[in-house]
Amino acid sequence: MAFVVSIFGSRQRLTSRQSRCQMSSTPVVKEAARTAISVDPAWRAGRDADWRGHNVKYCVVNEDGEGTPLVFVHGFGASAEHWRFNVPELASSAGSRPVYAIDLLGFGRSEKPSDPSGFDDYGVRLWGAQVAEFIDEVVRRPSVIVGNSLGGYACLFAAATFPQQVQAVSLVNAAGPKEADIEAYKEKKRGTGFLSRALAYGGFLLLRTGPRVKSVLNKVYTNNQSNVDDDLVKLILEPAYTKGAFDVFFRSTVRISPGPGRDTLLREIPETMPVSLIWGKNDPWCKKEIAEDLCDLLPRIEVRTFYK
Q: Domain named AB hydrolase-1: which ranges (predicted)?
């Protein structure tokens, strides 16, 4: 999916579940995404930053710009470069706005420690804190944060827990369980012994192949499968072969440290903070029902849905 939009461009308030989640449907904008391909890709080389003793990567365009910064946060198994169309497009169309994209700890080119210091294990508390502290220490200005899938859950946590760092939050097909789901997970959580780890490793090896990655991506990029190119497949595969990749996979799936539910986090977001949803209806994992639920939980949300 390539989402190229004007963040918080619409001030429409939608008042019912049906109108909030359907009336603002918009065709996917392919031309803008394709324009971004011609932009100098040097920004993708990235930079290094230290976060709690770990090396993390981030990318930036217009670093010295004076507008409100945008910070993009990727989803599970992805990286900063997955915003390869969006970052240069928004940097060139939003005046002097600085645009950042980060690699969450354990993903992309960031370090993949088996024991993330200061946290029980990988989970939304870790990644949400990383987003907020990245803004505080690197961006150094309150920012608009944009998160996809797992990154949306992390952004929701950052906005609710560290509101002084966040001007607004946009959730792009965001993941994140409800509080009731978390309690059920705690009760049914699988063991972390040899068998559990062996099964996870088998699944990891099956996923870590070019054909398998491409097959999975084709199920997600339903609007334009030409975006599933060698570059995108490489962005998924290369980090999976780096040191610590399996440990992160195991600890962020089987052993993931559960955090607050999305319903709890939404209730904690300050009333003055703008919240928007950007949703692709064909997402097989973060389905539109999640968007509808988020609308019910926070009626003031601004919504833009995309369809094929």
A: 70-291
Write out pLDDT tens, residues 121-177: 889 999 999 999 999 999 999 999 999 999 999 999 999 999 999 999 999 999 999
Q: Identify the helix (H) or strand (E) that includes residue 51.
A: strand 47-51
Q: For residue 156, what are its two tokens?
A: 């929701």
Q: Residue 195 domain-assigned?
A: no
Total structural domains within the chain: 1
Q: CA 300 to CA 20: how far, in whole Å?
A: 9
**This prediction's pTM:** 0.84
What's the chain's length in residues? 308
CA-to-CA distance for 1 and 225, rounded, in angstroms? 9
* Per-position DSSP letters for 219-241, written without gaps between them: HH--S-GGGS-HHHHHHHHHHHT
* Cα 204 versus chain centre, distance: 21
In a domain, 236, yes or no: no
Q: In what order do the strands lie in the sheet with 166-174?
A: 25-27, 302-307, 275-280, 166-174, 143-149, 70-73, 99-102, 54-61, 47-51
* Contact criterion met (CB below 8 Å) for 99 and 129: no
Residue 163: how many CB atoms within 10 A of its CB?
17
Residues 223 and 99: their CA atoms lie apart, in Å, by 25
Query: What burial letters (b/e) apply to 15-45, b meaning 16+ CB within 10 Å?
Result: eeeeebbbebeeebeeebbbbbeebeeebbe
Give first-to-last CA distance, the chain, whole Å. Answer: 10
User: Residue 116 is part of a domain; what is its CATH number?
Assistant: 3.40.50.1820
Q: Can you tell me whether residue 57 is helix, strand or coil?
A: strand
Q: Does the residue 246 lie in any domain?
A: no
Is residue 202 within a helix (H) or strand (E), and if so which, with residue range? helix 194-207
